[in-house]
Amino acid sequence: xxIEKARKLIRESANLCVLTGAGISxxxxxxTFRDSGGLWNNxxxxxxxxxxxxxxxxxxxxxxYNERRKNASKAEPNPAHxxxxxIEAGKNMVILTQNVDGLHQRAGSKxxxxxxxxxxxxRCTECSGIxxxxxxxxxxxxxxxxxxxxxxxxxxxxxxxxxxxxxxKAEEASGNxxxxxxxxxxxxxxxxxxxxxxxARRGVPVIEINKEPTQLSEITAVSFIGKAGExxxxxxxx
Length: 238
Ligand code: BJW
Ligand code: ZN
What we know:
- By secondary structure, the chain is of the alpha/beta class.
- It contains 10 helices and 9 strands.
- The strands form 2 sheets. It has a 6-stranded parallel β-sheet with strand order 3-2-1-7-8-9, with helices on both faces. Strands 5-4-6 form a 3-stranded antiparallel β-sheet, with helices on one face.
- Helix 6 (79-89) packs parallel to helix 10 (228-236).
- The chain is elongated and about 55 Å long.
- The protein starts with a helix and ends with a helix.
- The site of zinc ion has 8 residues, from loops.
């Protein structure tokens, strides 16, 4: 049975790499992007998640991110985040997350690479200095204490490169693992969506957990269709 196969793969894995997306935080009450009712149903991507949008209307972009910060600050890690933190305690494991909400870290995961940045960091548009000590509701507009220039969310928008250090760690973990799990992502945004192909090409098993099939489903050893918060805890215990 799939569940037994997945339990065995996880138990026997020494180097586990996990890619997560917005679906893993859905059961914490946070909206995904592309599901019905998701963020991109209510906002146009090009109005809030591109560098051009920020240049054109930084107030609108900051209002969008203040809403996201407010929601994320009220959210709690769910059983899926907690199960991953439990698995990490027993082995070498890296979580590559596309999420910016910080819920993996709050669940206790230590080895987390934030591929698309963080809601909790602001970056200066001039000196690139990072600011972490803003109130949840950031004053509109926020400015750098050093150079007085505008601060932006430290988030990777469309058309922007991922941090070289993040992509290096992600490729290294994907290339060295003996098991890869991909959880709650539509796998439509690159380069993150290509990471599961790195282990798959080497014959390393990929386990997927998603509410619906994705383009990755055909390369997976095991594909669970359902909620991450219900399936992941079952994979931990017999
Ligand atoms: C559940 C569930 C439950 C629900 N349990 N499951 C190659 C080919 C084509 C295009 C490109 C390419 N390479 C690059 C591009 C362009 C672009 C791109 O990929 N576009 C595509 C749309 C085609 N990529 C980029 O621009 C990236 N940059 C880049 O490549 O730079 C290159 C460069 C080099 C040098 C100089 C300059 C540039 C950057 C991408 C940044 C993405 N940023 C965003 C927005 C951040 C804003 C914010 O958060 O506020 O990150 S986009 C948005 O999508 C967000 C997410 O992290 C990302 C992924 O979404 P995710 O997590 O998969 O969510 P959903 O909603 O799509 O899916 C949720 C899933 O969960 C669904 O499948 C549900 O079924 C499931 N689910 N509930 C389990 N309970
Ligand atoms: Zn500055």
